[in-house]
Structures are given as structure tokens and as C-alpha cells.
């Protein structure tokens, strides 16, 4: 964990330096598209956020000065499986965004979906050395949280304190400066498959980009699609992407659970292509313009022209009803939502005081999916669109850009995480001291 802690801390410092220089890029690496936004910062505000306790927990004014998207290549289920193809796609979209912004960027913050995320709830407690809580006390209580056995080949992506308790007072966001004797902390830890993270980092390095941060797509989509009251009272954000469907639950403005389903809108397009025997590109177009999940009497009479280039005139010129198209799409959408419901039940979503569900992502644009989700999930469901940020082009304001816009908020208004605090010396393993002593002996 010490090596991970140091690498995450290094990325935080790199992000801070890039923000001070004024320009940074955010990259949403998805299965259907790769989106890049270039941000220019006007400088940090002179006040600190009420919801943060770490050195990165401030606010910065920013605007989008460049935006670009391209079709994903070499990415499946939200994970990179073809490094060379993904590298070309990332280079293309970053160069297009730099051209639109008229400025070169070297640092990027990236997000991705998939990678088998798992959530853990950790708790730590420390007796205060002094009666006044200091930042060192917070660091000690975070370090006191026992990290579970994550399993081989897994890495921690997020480790956020979600609640502090000082003596008998709980629900504290920032306990510094308060008086007490015992400090406790609840922390949410999210782990993902190490291979997926390393593959993404390797791909970005081949593109000559310095990684200043990495985040879960489900987390950043929730930051942009949920309004402030929903994040405070409790809500679930379902990001219906092309290759994976991300799920995140927020409470008290913090993410307390995240998961992903390895199914998305691409499977719906494949079902259409196989069911109607048409090319995949045409299936995607038909899904976009004529798709739906509820059939009415009018849909029997609405005919869709199918064209192909096989050379067989009768097969190349066909017409199908919209009812037939809906009959192909609905079972797959129901399967995705049923899987999401199973994940919500495992997370104990029914026990939250507020049970609002927000759908976002490109898959939420299918007409009628909100009504179908309300029946399957049994909760209040609304369609979520990303928050408006300054300079964001109209073409990037749709639900499919929730991850990219959430990355902007993740960069400008970061929540404190475990690696924002200095680890107390007693928490370092003995080999770290030996390595430090050897370094001092060789260099002094």
C-alpha cells in the first residue's frame, strides 16, 4: 500500500502544479467514444471548501477552451484490449482538442469504466494526543483504517473519508480545530483490476502525456449528473455507457458505493445487427433515430427502410416496423437494468433515507428507458444531464458526456482522499526506513 500511496500522492502533486500553470486536459476513455476537454484555470479561490479537509480540497474557477471526440478503437467493456489502436485514438482526440484550444497540454486526468470495481467500508479510531484536532490527527486516524485483503492483481483507485466522529458527535465533515478526546473515521475504498489501470497508464505514456490523476467513470458521472441535494440526501447514478454500465451511490456528498456491469449500449446495437441482418454501423444509426423500449399501435405502421450493399436487390431493400425493432431492443435493456437492480440490492440501497435514481450516459437517451427503469428498479427515476460548465460547447452538453464533465469537476473541486495527508512515520513498514537510511548514506 505504501507504493500505491506514494504514486497517488505524486499524481496529486502533479495535478496541483498543472493547475497552477493554468492548463490541463481531461480524457474520458469510453468503449464507444473518447472525449477530451482542455481546461484553463483562472486561479484558486481565496476560501476553502466546507466539504473538504485535505490540501487539495479547494475550488478553482475554470473554463473549457478546447473539446474534441473520436470513435473508440481497441477498447472493449471499458478496458483497453488493443494498445496500438487505443493509442492512435487518444493521440487523435488530444491533438484535435489542442488545435481547438490553440494550446499544447502535457498533463491529463483520465477516467475509465469497467475493470471490476469493488467497494469496501473501512473504519479507524485514534485517541487524540491533544484535545484539539489537527491535520496530523486526521492523517493518523485514516492510516489506522485496516486495509482488507484486496486479492492479487488489484489496485486501490479511490480512498475517501466519508464521515468523522469526535467522541459522541458524528456526521462531521471537517473536525479540525474542534475539541475532543477520541476521533473515528469511516472511509470508502474502491479497488479495480491492476492490469486495466496499468494498461491505461502505459497507453497514455506512449502518447507523451503525463498522468495527473485517474478516476472511476461511475464516480465522475455521479459528480456531474446528480444535483447537490441528491448528493447530500442519497441517490444512485447509473451511467449507461457503450461497453459497461457504471453504478455509484452518493450520500452526504461522498461516494459510498460503486460497481459496474459489463453490458452497455453496444450489446443493444449488436442485437439489432444480428436480428435484422444488417451492418453494425447501420444498426447503431437505426437505434439512435428509431429506437425505443415501448411499442404502441402507431409503431406497427411506422416502417424503417433498411439498405445494404450485398448485391441482392430484395435483401438490400427491406422495410421493418418500429415494433419489430423495439422487440429486439427491449429484452437487452431489461437485462441490463435487472443486473443493475441486483447490484443495488447487494449495496443495501433500499435502506437509504432517499432512494432517487438518476440515469445518464448515452444509453439513457433511448426513448422510454426512464419509465422502464422505474418499473424494474421500483424507485423514482429521472434522466440526468451533466451540469453546465463555462465554455462547454453545445455538442458536449448531452448525457453521453457526463463522464467528461464530471472529470472537469473532479479536477477543479477535488474531494480529499487518503493520499492528501502525510502518513505518520509509525505506519511505514520497516523496509521503508531501511531504504531511507540507505539513501541518506549514499547521498550525504
Automatic annotation (TrEMBL):
Belongs to the FtsA/MreB family. Pfam families: FtsA, SHS2_FTSA. Gene3D superfamilies: 3.30.420.40. It comes from Gemmobacter megaterium. HAMAP family: FtsA. Cell division protein that is involved in the assembly of the Z ring. May serve as a membrane anchor for the Z ring. This is Cell division protein FtsA. It is found in: Cell membrane. It is a peripheral membrane protein. GO terms for cellular component: cell division site; cytoplasmic side of plasma membrane. Residues 24-225 form the SHS2 domain. GO terms for biological process: FtsZ-dependent cytokinesis. SUPFAM superfamilies: Actin-like ATPase domain. PANTHER family: CELL DIVISION PROTEIN FTSA (PTHR32432:SF4), CELL DIVISION PROTEIN FTSA-RELATED (PTHR32432). It comes from the Bacteria. Self-interacts. Interacts with FtsZ. InterPro entries: ATPase_NBD, Cell_div_FtsA, FtsA/MreB, SHS2_FtsA. The lineage of its organism: Bacteria, Pseudomonadati, Pseudomonadota, Alphaproteobacteria, Rhodobacterales. Keywords: Cell cycle, Cell division, Cell membrane, Membrane.
Amino acid at each position: 500500500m505504501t507504493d500505491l500511496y506514494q504514486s497517488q500522492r505524486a499524481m496529486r502533486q502533479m495535478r496541483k502544479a498543472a493547475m497552477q500553470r493554468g492548463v490541463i486536459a481531461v480524457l474520458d476513455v469510453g468503449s464507444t467514444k473518447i472525449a477530451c476537454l482542455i481546461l484553463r484555470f483562472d486561479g484558486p479561490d481565496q476560501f476553502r471548501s466546507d466539504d473538504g479537509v485535505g490540501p487539495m480540497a479547494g475550488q478553482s474557477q475554470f473554463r473549457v477552451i478546447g473539446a474534441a471526440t473520436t470513435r473508440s478503437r481497441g477498447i472493449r467493456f471499458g478496458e483497453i484490449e488493443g494498445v496500438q489502436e487505443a493509442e492512435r485514438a487518444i493521440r487523435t482526440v488530444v491533438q484535435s482538442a489542442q488545435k481547438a484550444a490553440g494550446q499544447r497540454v502535457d498533463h491529463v486526468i483520465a477516467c475509465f469504466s469497467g475493470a471490476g470495481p469493488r467497494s469496501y467500508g473501512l473504519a479507524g479510531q485514534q485517541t487524540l494526543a491533544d484535545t484539539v484536532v489537527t491535520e496530523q490527527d486526521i492523517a493518523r486516524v485514516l492510516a489506522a483504517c485496516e486495509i482488507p485483503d484486496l486479492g492479487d492483481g488489484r489496485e486501490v483507485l479511490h480512498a475517501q473519508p466519508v464521515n468523522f466522529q469526535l467522541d459522541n458527535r458524528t456526521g462531521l465533515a471537517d473536525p479540525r480545530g474542534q475539541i475532543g478526546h477520541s476521533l473515528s473515521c469511516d472511509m470508502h475504498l474502491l479497488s479495480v483490476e491492476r492490469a486495466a489501470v496499468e494498461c491505461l497508464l502505459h497507453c497514455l505514456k506512449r502518447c507523451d502525456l503525463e498522468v495527473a490523476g485517474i478516476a472511476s467513470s461511475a464516480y465522475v458521472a455521479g459528480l456531474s449528473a446528480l444535483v447537490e441535494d441528491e448528493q447530500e440526501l442519497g441517490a444512485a447514478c447509473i451511467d449507461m455507457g457503450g461497453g459497461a454500465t457504471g453504478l455509484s451511490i452518493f450520500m452526504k456528498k461522498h461516494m459510498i458505493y460503486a460497481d459496474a456491469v459489463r453490458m452497455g449500449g453496444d450489446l443493444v446495437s449488436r442485437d439489432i445487427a444480428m436480428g435484422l441482418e444488417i451492418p453494425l454501423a447501420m444498426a447503431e444509426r437505426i437505434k439512435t433515430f428509431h429506437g425505443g423500449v415501448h411499442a404502441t399501435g402507431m409503431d406497427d405502421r411506422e416502417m424503417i427502410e433498411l439498405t445494404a450493399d450485398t448485391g441482392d436487390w430484395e435483401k438490400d431493400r427491406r422495410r421493418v416496423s418500429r415494433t419489430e425493432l423495439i422487440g429486439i431492443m427491449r429484452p437487452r435493456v431489461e437485462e441490463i437494468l435487472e443486473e443493475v437492480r441486483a447490484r443495488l440490492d447487494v449495496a443495501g440501497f433500499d435502506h437509504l433515507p432517499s432512494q432517487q435514481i438518476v440515469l445518464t450516459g448515452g444509453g439513457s437517451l433511448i426513448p422510454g428507458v426512464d419509465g422502464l427503469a422505474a418499473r424494474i428498479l421500483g424507485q423514482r427515476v429521472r434522466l440526468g444531464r451533466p451540469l453546465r460548465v463555462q465554455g462547454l460547447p453545445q455538442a458536449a452538453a448531452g448525457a453521453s458526456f457526463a463522464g467528461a464533465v464530471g472529470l472537469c469537476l473532479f479536477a477543479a473541486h477535488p474531494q480529499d482522499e487518503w493520499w492528501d495527508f502525510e502518513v505518520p512515520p509509525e505506519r511505514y513498514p520497516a523496509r521503508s526506513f531501511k531504504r531511507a537510511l540507505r539513501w541518506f548514506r549514499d547521498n550525504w
